[in-house]
């Protein structure tokens, strides 16, 4: 199985800050990497697919980059609605695997 | 607009069988474009992929659960289902059904683009 490791597991930030979340794969996955946002009690929502393509309707303050084993999700100018958990997921191989999540909290 | 909705018991006794159904509305499970998937999330933890069923009936399961999992498809009801046998408290989780869209958009990648709201299942005697 491909292990997906996210860092940090949580972070505190203020509205207007920029943050970066890192996701590392245990082996090369090309660009088969997607990011989800999850709010408490809700289903995950697709934010970015194929490393860097924004899902329709997702604000441009979200961006993704990387390839191989190292990937990042960046959020510029955090908005109140961005405080949530974020998960990465690889679709390079079966079983699909997810990072353990990063909780973005209000400072 | 396609929507997915999970249903099933919220409490299961060990070592019984957990059974959940996902009803698809606004689209058809009888499509070659999607894997119909189950994913779970234990309390306070990350997401675990359980497996998928394809419109043809073929399946693929997480090796960690393979001996206990089965999935089925009911095209007449536009539903797909999950059975997990011999449950223990470690199977307590929110269970999501999700659509994995094959070759999503121009990416040529498989993407979980639609999720159900999730259903909480507690395993306890």
3D architecture notes:
- The complex is a heterodimer of chains A (107) and B (125).
- Chain A is mainly β and 107 residues long.
- Chain A is 0% helix and 50% strand.
- Chain A has strands at residues 4-7, 10-13, 19-25, 33-38, 45-49, 53-54, 62-67, 70-75, 85-90, 97-98, 102-106.
- In chain A, the strands form 2 sheets. In chain A, strands 2, 4, 5, 6, 9, 10 and 11 form a 7-stranded mixed sheet that branches. In chain A, strands 1-3-8-7 form a 4-stranded antiparallel sheet, with no helix packed on it.
- Chain A is globular.
- Chain A starts with a strand and ends with a strand.
- Chain B has 125 residues and is mainly beta.
- In chain B, 0% of the residues lie in helices and 55% in strands.
- Chain B has strands at 3-7, 11-12, 18-25, 34-41, 48-54, 59-61, 69-74, 79-84, 93-104, 109-115, 119-123.
- Chain B is globular and about 45 Å long.
- Chain B starts with a strand and ends with a strand.
């Amino acid at each position: 199985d491909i292990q997906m490791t996210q860092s940090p597991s949580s972070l505190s930030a203020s509205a207007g800050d920029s943050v970066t979340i890192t996701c590392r794969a245990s082996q090369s996955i090309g660009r088969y990497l997607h990011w989800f946002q999850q709010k408490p009690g809700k289903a995950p929502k697709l934010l970015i697919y194929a490393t860097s393509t924004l899902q329709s309707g997702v604000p441009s303050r979200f961006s993704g980059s990387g390839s191989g084993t190292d990937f990042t999700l960046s959020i510029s100018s955090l908005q109140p609605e961005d405080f949530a958990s974020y998960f990465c997921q690889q679709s390079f191989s079966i079983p699909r695997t997810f990072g353990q999540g990063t909780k973005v909290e209000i400072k | 607009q396609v929507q997915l909705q999970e249903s099933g018991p919220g409490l299961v006794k060990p070592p019984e069988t957990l059974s959940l159904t996902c009803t698809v509305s606004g689209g058809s499970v009888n499509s070659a474009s999607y894997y119909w998937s189950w994913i779970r999330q234990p309390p306070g933890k990350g997401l675990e992929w359980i497996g998928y069923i394809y419109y043809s009936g073929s399946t693929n399961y997480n090796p960690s659960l393979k001996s206990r999992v089965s999935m089925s498809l009911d095209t007449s009801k536009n539903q797909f289902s999950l059975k997990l046998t011999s449950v223990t408290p470690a199977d307590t989780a929110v269970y999501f059904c999700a659509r994995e869209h094959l070759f999503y958009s121009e990416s040529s990648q498989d993407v979980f683009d639609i999720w159900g709201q999730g259903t909480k299942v507690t395993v306890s005697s």
